[in-house]
Fold this protein.
Amino acid sequence: MRHAGFTLLEMIVVLALLGLVTAMVVPSMLHGIDSWRRQAAMDAVLDQIRALPGVARANGKTIVIDDKTLASKPPPLTIEDGWTLTAPTAMTVAGSGVCSAGELAVGNTYGVRNIKVTAPFCDPVITP
């Protein structure tokens, strides 16, 4: 008389195949998640740069972006922990909202990306 069910060998083969597929998929998933986090941090900085003219107009004060102001408390631009933000070329945003051209460098453990900010609207462009 036969009983319905799976043998131990069949179960081991299925578990081995699941383990193999998981071992192939998980590293690429982790890399994708890390890439999304880096992109989200960069997008947050770009959004802050685009918002600078509105902030300057709302406060009626000139905003200066250089290494000194980026190190001040509170800085005009913020970035997540583990990242660095420097201004190789200083830029200003007048109280009227008009931007001068400048450059920012955003870095983490994977490298540094440069952001050129164009006048007069604070349009950020990531340069390779």
